[in-house]
Amino acid sequence: MIEDFLLGDNPFIGVSHLAQEKAREEAKVSTVKNKIKVLKAALNSGATGYTFSTHDSNLELLAAIKKEENLHIEDMNYYILVPYAQSYIRQANKAGAPALIQKIIAEIAKHPSRLIHALKGVMMIDPKIFASLFIEMNLSPYMKILPPKKVKAVLLHEVLTELIVSFDLIDLLKHIDHHVHNRLNLGFGIETRNIGQVYNWLRKNNYFPEYIMTPLNPLGYQMAPGKTQAEKAVKEAGGRSKIIAINILASGAVSFEDALKYMQSVKNSLYAVAVGTSKPWRAKENFAKITSALRQC
Hints:
Elements: E1 4-8, H1 20-29, H2 32-44, E2 49-53, H3 56-67, E3 77-82, H4 85-95, H5 97-109, H6 112-124, H7 127-143, E4 151-156, H8 158-166, H9 170-182, E5 188-191, H10 195-204, E6 211-215, H11 227-237, E7 242-246, H12 256-266, E8 272-276, H13 280-294
């Protein structure tokens, strides 16, 4: 049963997996003022939340929402994707990996409680502690703005998910899960474009996170290792984790009508669906259609 209809942030930060020019144009029109108009239009048409990465522009947006009279920050549920991997890749390319690590450690050291945990990690030579603190550090500025009860989940970016699965680091994933649940009191999940293999790995380890975010669309775009295997994995995982469907339009290659038909065929396995746009009129139109087609009475 679909509980949340989410506005996604990709168009706000200039991400389009198929067209760089389209992404640049969307980012150009996505001023804070326009983003707020999009959010209002989406909420007025049935959207219930916002899913976003820890990109600086989202921090700016949320701070602006908090000052809005006609849009309250408590009006939405939030699903936060951490970290914003592209930012760290750029920093590493520019200054080198050692400089990036020094910067991360310096950020952790600014908070006494995190510093104590970091020192514990050094003494025990335990990378799990550093990984958890890294996630917490990325979340910190957002949690100062958002109502904690409205933050439904922290989702591990697909880059980290794939690394963890590739190196069979189940203990690390469980530790991060425990840290997010018990120290931060938030739901935890993972993002993946490789749901077929990730599901098999999770099943092998008899562990399933509360949430799994993954692409679902009629083209099978970003549904590895293949559409049929991905659909099977989503159906089976849907009984153990809350599945959040993203990229349902296959980066614009699928019409909204075809995407809706496909979503209706898989909706019983889903907990939430995310759709992104940078245009208020499209947010109004799309969320009116998707909530009408998929919302349970």
